[in-house]
What we know:
Elements: H1 10-35, H2 126-136, H3 142-147
Amino acid sequence: MRRKNPKADLRLQYPLVVEAALAIALLLVTGVFIASKDFEIKPKQTRTQEVIIKVEDIPITHQIKRPPPPARPTIPIESDELDIEEDLTIADTDWDISDEPPPPPARSDDVVDFFAIEQKPELIGGARAIYDYIVKHDLFPTMARQAGVR
């Protein structure tokens, strides 16, 4: 069995390469800090403009109430009687609502026969019969016609 040459095996050299790269990076960063120039921050003088604020007196506004909507016009109803007061309105009419409503109409006693079945009815011809009916009577939707479905 042949073994790799230790100088050619990159896995063995990995820790050494990482340590060397870290040391070089630290030296470079330290050198940049030492060689860098000190910065002095000086405030910049700016001129400020005077802002003149004018105060105006605004008169107090008064809320005006809207007038009520006009009354709905009454609809004249023609009557068969000849002796009617002319100023009679619906509000003045006395309604006698004490009468009971009429009884409901008599139900017909037609009894529909119910038969129990063992098999459900089936459509003769199946889905093909429905499709043929649609084709025969031209009941396709517009989109189906445009898509060429037939």
